[in-house]
Amino acid sequence: TYNGIDVGNGATATINLNTISNSTNNAIYLHGSSNNSITNNTISTTNYPGPARTITNINNGDAAWAIAFDVGSNNNTATGNDITTSDVAIENWDGSGNVATGNKIHGNFFGVHNHTSNVVNAINNWWGNASGPSGSGSGTGDGVSAYVTYGPWYIDAGKTMLSNLITLTVNSGGNGTVGPAGIYNYGEVVTLTNSP
Fold first, then answer.
1. What is the pTM (predicted TM-score) of this model?
2. What is the tens place of the pLDDT at every residue in 85-101?
3. H/E element, 66
4. Which of the ends of the chain has fewer CB neighbours closer than 10 A, N or C?
5. Count of CB atoms situated within 10 Å of the CB of 196
6. CA 185 to CA 78: how far, in whole Å?
């Protein structure tokens, strides 16, 4: 198919619980369409039949987009989607205020690409590796471009633990219990006391 789901010209939709595969352009394409909700979809193999996949081609728009925000598509939310084996999982070609959180973005040539200087909120996603996204990120998962906020991210495919959580293991050194072991948010203050 060319575009699996196409929403444009001021229309608004809730796009939920679809399985879309083998699109040769875009799986979900929003153009001139704002305030849409894209949730719990499974998208795979969205691949452009044109030139080879390179970052240069992606920057030029010569790639297929699993989810695309184009032509002034603003304030859209994509959450709970599983996107894999596509050229670009989520593209913000021309939009602002778009959010992509709580998704599984893995096994794609590129994860979230932003063609604008309007920041895309892409926190709390699984990027295919516990180290987080590559590209502008420092990990080895699917890539992110500039103007994408990506941290914290899920460190497991089941989306049970975020990267900003730390595990505190306390070793008393044989002198008794010294404090509360557990999982804490990054930056949270933990007080340890020595117990005889």
1. 0.86
2. 999 999 999 999 999 99
3. strand 65-70
4. C
5. 5
6. 25
